[in-house]
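Lab notebook, bench 4. Still working through the backlog of constructs that have no structural model yet. Next entry is a single chain of 123 residues. Request: give me the structure tokens for it.
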Amino acid sequence: QLQLVESGGGLVQPGGSLRLSCAASGFTLHYYAIGWFRQAPGKEREGVSCIGSGGSTTYADSVKGRFTISRDNAKNTVYLQMNSLKPEDTAIYYCAAEQYSCSGFTSKRFAYWGQGTQVTVSS
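Model written out:
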């Protein structure tokens, strides 16, 4: 049973911060690239950030300087620290895993997907 479980979503005011977690079970995240994606109502799913098995990172232009992706292999968990949140960040956030690299990030070709966690930014 290979699973990814997101947590940490919730309601936050504009300018606030939130940290999302992506915990893996049934396999070892150490060997995988992990991507964060989001989908707002009526919109296509978009890539937010990705971290490779070697630690390299990539970010969508819309979140650069505000979001930080990291991994703790000992805990088999990847995090997305979100600062200076904006209403347009409101979406369901998903994590996904693919072997080794983030090469499939733009095409969203990741092997495993979590169920998502809701992030709402509103005053």
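Notes after review: The two ends are 40 Å apart (CA to CA). The longest strand covers residues 91-99. Flag for follow-up if needed.
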